[in-house]
Amino acid sequence: MPLLLTGCLGTKHLKDDEKLLVRQTTRVSRKVDQEELRSLYVQRPNRRFLGVPSFHLLVTMYYAGLKRYNKEKFVRKKEQAEKKFDAKIAKTTNQKKINNLQFRKQKKIDKFNSRIENGNQFMQWGEPVAVFDSVLVKTTLDRFSNYLFSKGYFTNSVTTRINTIGKLVTINYRIETGPPFIIDSIIYRIQDTTVNRIVSNNKSESLLKKSERYEESNLSKERERLDLLLKDNGFFDFSRQYIDFEVDTSALKNNKVLVILFIRNPAKRGYHKQFEIDSIRFTTDAGVPYPGYSRKTRTYRDVQYRYFENNYNLKILSQRLFLTPASLYSRSNTYNSQRQLANLDAFKFVNINYDTSGGRFIANIFTSPLDRYEWSNEVGLNITQGYPGPFYNITFKKRNIFRGLENFEFSGRIGVEGVAGATGDQIYRSTEAGVNASLLFPQFLWPFRGGTQIRLGKYNPKTRLSVGYSFSERPEYRRTSTTLSNTYTWQNKRSTQYSLALTNISLINSTIKDDTFNTLLNRLYEQGNYNLKRSFEPSFVSSMIFGITWSKDYGTYDKNAFFLRGQVESGGTTLNFIDPAIITDQGLQYFKYLRFSLDFRKLKILNKWATLAYRVNTGYAWSYGSGNSLPYEKFYFVGGSNSVRAWRPRRLGLGSVPPPLNENPQQKGLFNYQFEQPGEILLEGSVELRSKLFGFVHGAVFIDAGNVWSSQRTISDPNTPAKGSSQFRVDSFYRELGIGTGFGLRFDFTFLIFRLDVGIKAYDPAREPGDRFVLDKFRFWKPYANTNSDGTMRGPVKEPVIYNFNIGYPF
């Protein structure tokens, strides 16, 4: 029955002699990567919309577009567009205007060519019906056999079984891999004695291992490894074409393989030449016109620098240059020099080439400066926990401000949005503004010796000095914060980054404007919620922060990737060595605390249309000292568009402590999520299945879980009908995880991804045991309790779904 349902939509688009391919399966006798095998299919069944049988949205879209498609119409429009732009170009002699018109013309023509060749937009978003083709089955069989052969299964057998029911076809591929062939011996035949010595000294790094299964891909990888190894040892003109392999299965028995590696000499020279750098010439302003002037030359650390104006600190440039005269050519050092010079954010391009004419080997480095001043403006709409409101951002950068490759950066922001009042149901305006200024130095500001700074240059060291001021105003309060920080960053690999903030100081001041709100804070303080009240007292916060980030291909979204970030923070460390009275005498409270966090994310590509992403995020904060409290900004929170999406931002928790019930008669039985829930222990995770639907529209389904807890005390509100525990306990925390699920759409516009998620509560730990599963109690619209006009209940409470709007993926 599912088979019939799957194909019923597509068969009406078939011709009389055609059949519909509805499914393909592959059975293999050994552990072979099934996804790689599936990627070899030459023909594929039509995709289903979110996996629903008989619902082929893309097929429907394609044929809906085909009915309205008129190829001749697009041909005519293309011709009209060409004539229109040609006429405009002919009327002007302004080269800048001509270039602009030529660009617009080509963009328009490309659009029409796409319509002519691939159909209209609906046809391009959709797909035609998958017509079964026996010739393509044979091609798939050949692909499978070649793939298995490349994996060392030389005696593989691939057969197929085709089942036909009416006009519906399923294909079953059965694969017998046969025994794998194992590498028994590796023989090196290298004519050049110097090359032979280098290869022999690095045999331990070889990707060809005895007693391992033969894989053809390892031959290619070994060829690339040897090519880089030799080019890092001076063989500038070495090429991979000199490396060859022979695989012999006849010389040995019992499925053993003999691999022979050849490195041949050039035909003309008869040997491989090692190149030694004679001199280095660095042109810092290539492509910059200075009519009537000639470049000056200055030698620093054996490098000849050429320039019209001496705009750069040669000491800093030399720290990012890993080439030296009288040393052997190294491709890795060349690449690292190019990359580290580009990391300075001072040059449009960095090119390094070598001149071998005249019997010399000269390294030429060419850079062209970026614009010294850079402005950007951004106007948009705030989409957070409140009602949307406008914002404006401005950024300014001045490069090479002190001619030492330092960059000055300034940013400002102001935004307005509507928020619910803390003491009522009205919507008020919330204003937020802030400015930040930073100086970024391309080295560590630390009394290292010159030789040490040069050795550190390969780690892309940077020092950032920042000062900032933020302001927020709501009807209940006004809050300001002044920050000062000194942060060092570096990396030992492109995938591993480190940061150390030795100084991170904030002065926070709040003014309560509403007496009702002040009374509310005092009441919450008496009930045990000390954190909220303390957060509105003048404060001095100082800390040291160390963080490590590992990542591989994260942010590309088209290949397997992972991301791991760990952070340790020590607050009030310096106050252990000085008298805290210096702070308290100024009317400020201070904090001493330790804070740890770990964030892990992974992206797994399931196929060309689907991706599985998951995340685990944890944290622990511990306060010590007389105040025994954390700064409010250092607590953990759960809920929102990048967390557990079935709860409003920062509103899930603590533990199983229920929020107070809503006093509004229309919302009787619903919790009142007016206040954020700060916790000292965080645990949350998410799993999300993402799939391309059509065009730029992607879909997702997800499950989120998480909560925050206190580490020591239990908080409960005596006005709530049920008591709960806010304290983290190993034997019960898993029963206090809030669980949400939902679905969403992602609109990929290339330059940004707009996201809409619908979060639905599945398990609410704030409810009484036995009533915590609430997946069947949600409503999309009018999320109020089921009450009569007099406020009495006439049915079970319906949980509201949470709509999340944001930019980018949640993780």
TrEMBL record:
Main subcellular localisation: membrane
UniProt KW keywords: Cell outer membrane, Membrane, Signal, Transmembrane
Top-level taxonomy: Bacteria, Pseudomonadati, Bacteroidota, Cytophagia, Cytophagales
Gene3D superfamilies for the chain: membrane protein fhac: a member of the omp85/tpsb transporter family (2.40.160.50)
Location of the protein in the cell: Membrane
InterPro entries: Bac_surfAg_D15 (IPR000184), D15-like (IPR039910)
Domain of life: Bacteria
Positions of the Bacterial surface antigen (D15) domain: 472-772
Pfam family, one: Omp85
Name of this protein: BamA/TamA family outer membrane protein
